[in-house]
Every structure is written in structure tokens, then in C-alpha cells.
Write a sequence for this structure.
DNA sequence: CGGTCCCTTGACAGCCGTCAACTACCGTGG
DNA sequence: CCACGGTAGTTGACGGCTGTCAAGGGACCG
């Protein structure tokens, strides 16, 4: 149960055994199994614990009064929904499960203790939160400059790399529980247009969808289309998979 | 020189006199005067200091290989360009002045010292960085769901409130050094369309532009159009100006 | 005076949203 | 077993928002 958090934080920094102990203490909470399509936190809620995703998919979204809404971020296995950690007063967006999810709710006090007692844990949490905001900035770039097809490809690439780093893919395929409406609300296009875009990606043999699974058939083509460069995800080089065949990088001794 | 940083951090938390001393020590660096339209950090640069803006405008931008580029954020008087603080390896975007700017470069070590020695300063810096990422998420919402005119209005509202909190406006007008190309690169539309959108905002008497200054003629109308709610900026309630006449809030003792 | 940068305008095309209808799939209940 | 309803995906027609191209105008500067 605490293994996943340890592994996650190890991606960001080196830990001592005392840090591991602190993590174990913090992780004595009982994980919650939340069914798919359940709102776990609403805009305006006070939060006294930070959800840590053991498995499943969660999305953060913000709603306008006229009904329009936008997905702000996704959280998958190994992610902290650090909606401002225990710092800002209240949730400015909602959190909702997209698939059945196992969630560990880390109480603010437990986080505070880890952060206060260990500079290494503090650095790790800071970096984790920083990576989330770098991803948000990448979404700004995508939404602002890419067209619908490129944005869609970009989203799929990002999720693919993140899930791969979280060890949550099989071959080139992964669970993809989003409806087309949700994909649209993520890349800022209508549901109908999302349908056509996904269709074109399938037609061009870039991806394949079967039920709630998505397979990347042509990773290089997809990344080329999206002008995707995974470096912004700041994945641990050790868990980074070998590069695509078609895109060689410097030899690793 | 250090006054501005102290004032900024006071917006986020309470400080003790020892904290003030730490800030004064960190601020012994000599500020740099950088002319307008100068790139101060490039994508890929290592950063060993965090720019703190004493006056002027800076923008962060990311460039695609095909020439398209997107503004990721603006930094104005009193802002820290906390491009990941001293945590992530290198700049994933560029930093450029939009007007003549006075910049204090806080060395990583000075920041480290403040953060390590004072939990209050640490909290303040964390919150400051958090607010930046909340703004990025708001841009995701704006880019994803609002149309060009709404986005433009939203941007103007955000800048207006931030500059007002930084005490950098006169009446309802402020320095607005952006070219239309830069506005377009911020809200994700072409230069030509930006021109037409700004024109329509002027025609409807929402804003006025004279030289490099912008005046808000109808704050309520502009905020209504953009569905703008300043709460996401997490401005210090004490420095929040009185609410718009047309939008009454609960009586304040 | 010429050059450059920025703003402005018109014409036209294409991406994308909206509306509406239809299909496929799944679980439920009779 | 089938009828039924709900959700998600699909398709076509049409229109509007926005991009592109091209040209011209104004301000500033060397």
C-alpha cells in the first residue's frame, strides 16, 4: 500500500530509511474503493486530506455557470491529487472518478509531518507538484496552438507515457475509460467533433480502440503529429522505456 | 528593494522579524535593469537564480519547431518567475521582457536558505508558486471553453486584478505593453483575429486603448462577458479593492 | 526620406460547433 | 426470452467562428 508512494517519491529524489518510516506511518490510512463516475470532491469543498491514487482514473474539472466545463488534469496510478496541497483554502475545481479507483486519503497532518521532518520528502513532494503544473502549462500550449487532431494525439501521447511510467500498460495498450464527451472537454472541442477526430486517428492507423482500451499502433507517427516531446513530464530516466525505434537517441553506455 | 518581496510574501502568510531579516539578506543582490523585448532566459538554460520582478512586464513562452508559439504566463511587479524554483533541471520555456523591467535575481542558495530556515517563508513561497499554477489551470479553462472574445476579456480582467493588487494601476487604466501578436499568442488566436476582437471590445465601450495603456471602461460588462471571478487569483482580501458597484456582496462590518 | 514595426481592412476558405437523427450496446424487468 | 430504456458512439447537413493571404496606413527612427 505504501510501496507505491515510496516508488513515486523515489522518482523525484533519494530517500533515507527514516524517510521510508515516515511514509509508512502516513500510509496507515485505509484505502477507499470508489466506483467509476463518482464525484469525490466538489468545487468549494474544504479539503483536509490529499487523495493518492493507488489504481484507477480521476479527473479534475471546472464548470462554468452556463454549463460548459473543462477537464483540468488527470490523475492515474501513483499520482497525488495535490490540489494545492494543504495550502489554499478550498477546492476551486471538482474531482471525479472515471473508472473504479482505489484511493488513499493522506491527511494534511500526515503530509505536514513528512514535509516538516524530512527535507528529502519535502523536495520530493515539491517536485511532484511541480510536474503537475508543468503538465498544465503544456496543456496551455496544446490548447492554444495545436488543432483538434494534434491536441487529441498530444493527449494520448501524454497519457501513454505517464501510464507507462506508472507501469500501467500492456504492450502498447492501456485502459482508456474516457467517453468522447470527456475527451472533448479535455482538448476543448465538441463531442461530435471528437468523434470525427478519433475516427481519423483510427483510420490513419495511429491508434486502435476496443471497448475501454486504447492501443497505440504507430507511436512515432502519433508523436510526430502532436509534436510531442515527453521530456516535460520529467519522468525518472530509470523508469523511462527505451526510445522509439524510429527516433534514435544517444547511446546509453 | 526588499520591501516589495516582503509585501508580496505577507500576502500569503504572517512573518516574524527573523523572517524579515532573512529576506533582507537574500535581497542584497543588485537589481538589473533589462530593456523591453529582451530574452532573459531561453528554453534549455540552466537556472541558478529566480527572477523577482520589481517593475515591468515579463512573459514566459514556449516555441514549437514549426514556428508557432504560445505565451504560458505573465509576470508583473511583485511576481516571482518561479519556473520550478530551484528544483527542475532546466528551463522548459523562455522568459522575455515586454517592457523595460527592473529584475532582482534571487540566487538559488538564498532561496534555499529562506525556505530551510523559516517554515513561514517556505509556506509563503509555496503558496506563491501554487497561485501561479492555479492561474495556469484557469488559462486551460479559458483556452478550452471560451471563444476568442471571452478569452480576450478574461485575460484583460486577470491582468487588471493582478496589477491592481500590485498597486500598479491608475484609476481603471494600466500599462499594457503587449502587441496584438502577443495577445494572440496568449489566447490562442491569430494576429488578424486579435485585431478584430480588440476592436469589438473597444466598439462596445468595454475597454479603451491609447498608446501602450489600456483603460477598462466597463468592468462589470467585461467580467460578465468573460465569466470572470477573481477568487482564483487568491489575492489577499486586505488588498482586494471594493467590489464593483453593479455586483454587491455581503456587507463588510 | 526610406525602412521597420505595428495596426487595420477585405476577401475567402477551412476548421469546428450545432442540430437532429440514427445505431450499437448493455442491463433491467416483464 | 424479449421488450424496453438509457448511455455512448456515429453520421449528415449547415453555419459561424477563426485562419490565411494580401494590401495598405500610421508612427517612429536613423
Amino acid at each position: 500500500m505504501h510501496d507505491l508512494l515510496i516508488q513515486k517519491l523515489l522518482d523525484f529524489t533519494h530517500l533515507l530509511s527514516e524517510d521510508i518510516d515516515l511514509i509508512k506511518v502516513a500510509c496507515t490510512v485505509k484505502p477507499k474503493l470508489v466506483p467509476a463516475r463518482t464525484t469525490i470532491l466538489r468545487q468549494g469543498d474544504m479539503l483536509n486530506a490529499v487523495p493518492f491514487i493507488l489504481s484507477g482514473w480521476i479527473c479534475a474539472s471546472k464548470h462554468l455557470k452556463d454549463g460548459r466545463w473543462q477537464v483540468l488534469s488527470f490523475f492515474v496510478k501513483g499520482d497525488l491529487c495535490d490540489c494545492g496541497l494543504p495550502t489554499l483554502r478550498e477546492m476551486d475545481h471538482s474531482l471525479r472518478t472515471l473508472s473504479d479507483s482505489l484511493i488513499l486519503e493522506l491527511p494534511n497532518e500526515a503530509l505536514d509531518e513528512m514535509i516538516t521532518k524530512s527535507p528529502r520528502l519535502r523536495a520530493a513532494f515539491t517536485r511532484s507538484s511541480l510536474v503537475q503544473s508543468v503538465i498544465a502549462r503544456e496543456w496551455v500550449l496544446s490548447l492554444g496552438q495545436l488543432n483538434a487532431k494534434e491536441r487529441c494525439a498530444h493527449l494520448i501521447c501524454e497519457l501513454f507515457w505517464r501510464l507507462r511510467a506508472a507501469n500501467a500498460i500492456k504492450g502498447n495498450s492501456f485502459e482508456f475509460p474516457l467517453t468522447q464527451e470527456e475527451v472533448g472537454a479535455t482538448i476543448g472541442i465538441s463531442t461530435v467533433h471528437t468523434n470525427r477526430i478519433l475516427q481519423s486517428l483510427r483510420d490513419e492507423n495511429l491508434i486502435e480502440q476496443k471497448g475501454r482500451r486504447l492501443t497505440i499502433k504507430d507511436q512515432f507517427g502519433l508523436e510526430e503529429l502532436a509534436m510531442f516531446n515527453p521530456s516535460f513530464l520529467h519522468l525518472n530516466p530509470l523508469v523511462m522505456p527505451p526510445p522509439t525505434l524510429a527516433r534514435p537517441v544517444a547511446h546509453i553506455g
Remarks:
- The CA atoms of residues 11 and 237 of chain A lie 9 Å apart.
- Confidence is low (pLDDT under 50) at residues 242-253 of chain A.
